[in-house]
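Supplementary Text 2. Reproducibility record for the structural model of the 126-residue chain.

All settings were left at their defaults, and a single model was retained for analysis rather than an ensemble. We include the record here because the model underlies the residue-level annotations in Supplementary Table 4.
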Amino acid sequence: MSAITFFRKLDRETRKKIIETIVLKRGGKKVAEDLGVSKAAISRYLKGEIFPSDKILSKIFEISDKEEREKISIIIGEYIVDLLKEYKNLFSSLEKDTIYKDIKMKIFEELESLVKELKSECDQKT
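Retained model, structure tokens:
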């Protein structure tokens, strides 16, 4: 999956948080220059009037330094955790029908496998 495809899945609030993070460190003028957009666009992103495109988010990730990438990763991780909590609540509200139980088990097995892979990667890096 390309970065652009991944960023397409992020909601507006997460996109805004990513812009806020990079602007906080670099300043709006520098971010505008780095991204090839106007200072007005950065201002509108920060006000929530418009939201950065997938292409802009991909560019942010490309130009970000280690500290910025860590902060962006945390923001995206928090979004994913919130999404999973909402997903869990949705399934919890469904009837205890066998088909839902089977679907839940399949999805949770896949999630468990992904979590194990991520944990393994983290363990290898430390």
